[in-house]
Amino acid sequence: MQKILVNIITVSFLILSGCLKDAPITQATTEQNNSADILVYLETQGDYINSPLMPSLIKASDVFSKPDDKIILDVRQASDFTKGHIQNATNIKSSDILNFIKTADPNKTIVIVSLTGQSASYYTGLLRLDGYTNVFALKYGMASWNMDFASPWLNEDQPTAYFTNKVFNKPSFSALPEVTFASTKGNIKEKINTRIQGLMKNTFIEYDVSDASVSVFNLLDIFSPSRGNYLNTFVVCYAQNMDEYLSGKSINSPGHLPTAVYYQANNFGQSDLRSTAFLQTIPNNKDIVVYSRIAHSSAFITAYLRLLGYRAKSLLFGMRWRMGFNWTTEVKNYPYVTGP
User: What is the pLDDT of residues 207-258, one digit of tens each?
Assistant: First the structure.
């Protein structure tokens, strides 16, 4: 176990004692490691990613019923925005969101909108990690707003080739990834802000591989049946319980991707991604693919891991292979407007 773990565990007692918002800006001193500085800061300032606040989602019904106290930022392409969007929404590039909200009314709720809610969750995760507590992702995105936008979510199918119910153990602890800050000036909070500004420029495509996303089809392209694994890739099943990890649509159906390792999502204060738990069993020298039940949490976790320096991507559409849910019940027929 790395020395850096011991240092972070010491700081974590601040978390258990409360008063998170008033905690001083603390940096790791055991060894020079920028990722450790980021981790210590985040865990002593609320530990958002392991808190009950994550994932920060808002339903279409809540946006529709109370529009006046919302600022709606739509991160889709301009052509998709023109075909239909929520009234009074602003079409914006993800790289411009931080500058926009710095001057926005802090008393209003900021809603990030994408087609299926997955890229919105990624950007919302970064904004939350940057301290913006009034930002939410629209759950299921425009696919939940009106049936005219729902087909990408409703009709997505995922192959289950090579799926298994074998339990794969967590690897040994390893060092955190190496992170280089753009500038040596400023405190850790300012450095994190600059890093998040850079990460907001990452593309997150909701239908194919991108900087921060990947599909089951993409994984099949790098799977080796002879070796039984994905090329240089570590798969994280971020789930509430082992049932989500093991079971498919029926109790006898294979429940997870080959080589996937179960990490417990935050559940009554328990989370495997805390520094005091198993965060550092995630390898620092592989591509990381994270998946969750409906792909929102995995996008938030991907934002967190990328901030810490991991080469992480969110698996698109989550555990669709195990869902027997009627997704159409989540789709409203709320009005929308067209044009720029």
Answer: 899 999 999 999 999 999 989 899 999 999 999 988 889 876 665 677 899 9
Report residue 235 as tokens.
């798969």
| 130 falls within a domain | no
Q: Are 41 and 27 in contact (CB under 8 A)?
A: yes
Listed residue (115, 147, 141) closest to 333, CA to CA: 147
| Contact indicator for 91, 170 with CB cutoff of 8 Å | no
Domain that holds residue 228: 188-322
- In this model, does residue 9 exceed pLDDT 50? no
Two tokens, residue 334: 């709320």
Strand arrangement of the beta sheet that strand 213-214 belongs to: 213-214, 311-315, 287-291, 233-239, 261-264
Q: What's the burial of 285, exposed, middle or buried (CB within 10 Å: 0-12/13-18/19+)?
A: exposed
Instruction: Report yes or no: 127 and 97 within 8 Å, Cβ to Cβ.
Output: yes
Cα–Cα distance measured from residue 140 to residue 300, given in angstroms and rounded to the nearest whole number = 14
Whether the full predicted model's pTM is greater than 0.85, yes or no, is: yes
Question: pLDDT tens digits, residue range 186-201?
Answer: 899 999 999 999 999 9
What is the torsional sign of CA 112, 118, 121, 125? negative
Mark 31-41 as b/e (b = at least 16 C-beta within 10 Å). eebbbbbbbbb
Total tally of structural domains belonging to the chain: 1
Q: Is residue 55 part of a domain?
A: no
On whether residue 127 sits in a domain, the answer given is: no
What's the CATH code of the domain at 193?
3.40.250.10
Question: Binning pLDDT at 50, 70 and 90, where does residue 17 land?
Answer: very low
